[in-house]
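USER: Note each token:
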Amino acid sequence: MIAYVTVGADDIARAKRFYSAFLPALEYGLKEGPEGLSYALPVPPGQSPILPDFYVKPTFDGRAASAGNGSMVAFEAHNQSQVRELHAAALAAGGSDEGPPGFRASYGPHFYVGYLRDPQGNKIALFCSNPNEPGRDG
């Protein structure tokens, strides 16, 4: 199981605007500190953490942060409407479009996804695959 995912950011305030535009709607809480941003799902009393956590941090070596070629972090939304809403919110918060929300021919008939780049260039996907919603084939 993946415990956490970290992306680098040179401008933490700019990254916070971007990620806070959609992660709270997916129930992620934010803890902010000198080491950067920590987003985590709530932990009910007596329960184990729900993983993975998501961190946005300056680089440890002090060099400029860079996006990985072929790397992407995907966040699951509740439904197609939420994918559209959160994609738009992330764009308004400084992200760039890598593919508007919709179905893709190369994925299953219920896989609905929108792609973004965060302000640092990291690729982000917002998706749902709710079988109770209309699929690609009608």
Observations:
- The chain has two helices and eight strands.
